[in-house]
Design brief:
single chain, 168 residues, alpha+beta, 2 domains, five-stranded antiparallel sheet, 3 helices, 28% strand, globular
Length: 168
């Protein structure tokens, strides 16, 4: 009877090794399952138009971006834009993203809303007091740039556009 009790209470060294190996294998399997679950639930980056805005003279305020599909309101009336978005500024740069955009011909206008009032401030002659920019870095002559000068073809997928802000 002592031998039988001894075997139950004191497993052999070989069985301890087997139990340790089994425990290690189960732990590795659990870690692998956790890692694979994390990679499966991570959402894919949104596809669309990503606008990198540079040469902002300060980090004050925000950048307002508008995406237009026609010349009708470009760039003066962002209320008629296909989409608008705002972005914070860091180290003189900002990024605006437009997701879910259908392929087509578009133009983008941006302005540095330094006082965060949501509108482009102008002087008594109508000249912008805040920085402005457009896709293709199109510039106007005695007025805003033309839609055709700022227009670009968006084929779908992911598109990166740089825009440099100018202070007039």
């Amino acid at each position: 009877m002592k031998l039988w009790n001894r075997r139950i209470l004191e497993p052999s060294p070989g069985s301890l090794r087997q139990t340790g190996v089994k425990t290690l294998l189960v732990a590795i399997a659990l870690i692998g399952t956790t890692v694979s679950l994390r990679t499966q639930t991570t959402p894919a980056p949104a596809l669309g138009i990503r606008v990198s805005i540079g040469r902002l003279r300060s980090d004050k305020g925000q950048v307002v971006c508008a995406l237009f599909s026609s010349a009708a309101a470009f760039p003066k009336n962002p209320d008629k834009a296909v989409a608008t978005t705002k972005s914070n500024i860091s180290h003189g740069q900002a990024v605006c993203e437009f997701s879910g955009v259908d392929p087509g011909r578009y133009a983008i206008s941006v302005f540095h809303d330094e006082n965060s009032n949501g509108k482009l401030d102008r002087n008594f002659m109508g000249i912008p007091r805040e920085g402005v920019g457009a896709s293709n870095n199109a510039a106007g002559h005695f007025g805003p740039p033309r839609f055709n000068d700022a227009a670009f073809q968006y084929p779908g997928g992911e598109l990166d556009l740089p825009i440099t802000v100018a202070y007039l």
